[in-house]
């Protein structure tokens, strides 16, 4: 793993993602400035990269721009400047359905299943672009999430919160993505179900799918990810391996304690 700059050097931290960006990476985000309205930018020069097969987490206080960064990657908001690349190809501003065709899976934080449809029908929606692969991918997702196969005929709206999250992740895997973007997958779940979701994330990653995850449970996120980014006010504040960030006194003092109290985590 590439060493990261000293977290106390703001200029080095700000450029860390760009400095290590290569065409071999799955995702490269370089100096992104973006927001929801022309006069207000939420992201103010973010840099980030995800290598093939890597598990990368993004943490930070509320309003730091974490989910906004995912939306910028997915072309869901205005990008003022900077670039987003997928396998070296410039995809800045490309629409989400185009990125799905190129191997990007996305699981939003809320309203991420069709509650009136069965589990099987939800998964069918995941491969609407390539319906011929359904049976093959259904078997794969069924092995990854055995409960989904057992409850294939049950309506998704009748499932528990954790099970619905599995349906959402399973649907995102139906087109065999090279990278999976997760927006706060543990939100609203009990600690036990949160652990189950994180275990499943590790299983997905172990199968070769790169993951970029925004997560409110900062400590748990850093425990499971290979590398992490701490965003604050739309900028890179700290970056390093999950283990390094967990042990960094500045990250502990400024973020982990506060984030743990705000989310009810340990």
In words, what does this structure look like?
This protein has 266 residues and is an alpha/beta fold. It has two domains: 10-103 and 177-263, Rossmann fold (3-Layer(aba) Sandwich); 110-171, no CATH class. 39% of the residues lie in helices and 23% in strands. It has twelve helices and ten strands. It has helices at 10-14, 16-19, 66-73, 96-101, 119-126, 134-144, 146-150, 161-172, 191-206, 218-224, 242-247, 249-263, and strands at residues 27-35, 43-50, 55-59, 78-86, 89-90, 104-107, 179-183, 210-214, 227-232, 235-241. A six-stranded mixed sheet has the order 6-7-8-3-9-10, sandwiched between helices. A four-stranded antiparallel sheet has the order 2-1-4-5. Strand 4 and strand 5 form a beta hairpin. It starts with 9 loop residues before the first helix and ends with a helix. 45% of the residues are buried.
N-to-C SSE string, H for helix and E for strand: HHEEEHEEHEHHHHEHEHEEHH
β-strand number = 10
CATH class of the largest domain: Alpha Beta
Unreliable residue stretches: 1-12, 261-266
Counted by DSSP, the helix tally is 12
Strand order of the largest sheet: 6-7-8-3-9-10
What's the main sheet like?
Answer: 6 strands, mixed
- Indicate the CATH architecture of the largest domain: 3-Layer(aba) Sandwich
Q: Do you know the CATH topology of the largest domain?
A: Rossmann fold
SS strand fraction: 15-25%
Q: Over the alpha carbons, how many angstroms does the gyration radius reach?
A: 18 Å
Helix-and-strand structural type: alpha/beta
Distance between the termini: 28 Å
What name goes with the CATH superfamily of the largest domain? P-loop containing nucleotide triphosphate hydrolases
């Amino acid at each position: 793993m590439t060493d990261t700059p000293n977290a106390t050097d703001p200029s080095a931290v700000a450029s860390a993602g760009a400095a290590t960006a290569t065409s071999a990476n799955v995702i490269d985000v370089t100096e992104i400035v973006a927001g929801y309205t022309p006069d207000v930018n939420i992201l103010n020069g973010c840099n980030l990269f995800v290598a093939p097969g890597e598990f990368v987490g993004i943490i930070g206080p509320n309003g730091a721009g974490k989910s906004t960064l995912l939306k910028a990657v997915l072309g869901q908001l205005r990008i003022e400047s900077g670039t987003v690349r997928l396998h070296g190809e410039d995809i800045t501003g490309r629409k989400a359905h185009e990125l799905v065709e190129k191997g990007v899976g996305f699981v939003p934080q809320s309203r991420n299943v069709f509650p009136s449809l069965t589990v099987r029908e939800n998964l069918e929606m995941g491969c609407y672009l390539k319906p011929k692969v359904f049976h093959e991918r259904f078997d794969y997702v069924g092995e990854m999430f055995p409960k989904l196969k057992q409850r294939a005929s049950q309506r998704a709206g009748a499932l528990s919160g954790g099970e619905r999250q599995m349906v959402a992740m399973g649907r995102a895997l139906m087109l065999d993505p090279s990278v999976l973007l997760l927006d706060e997958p543990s939100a609203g779940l009990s600690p036990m179900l949160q652990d189950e979701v994180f275990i499943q994330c590790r299983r997905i990653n172990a199968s070769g799918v790169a993951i970029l995850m925004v997560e409110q449970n900062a400590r748990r996120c850093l425990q499971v990810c290979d590398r992490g980014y701490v965003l604050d006010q739309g900028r890179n504040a700290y970056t390093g391996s999950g283990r390094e960030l967990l042990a960094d006194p500045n990250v502990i003092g400024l973020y982990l304690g506060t984030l743990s109290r705000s989310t009810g985590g340990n």
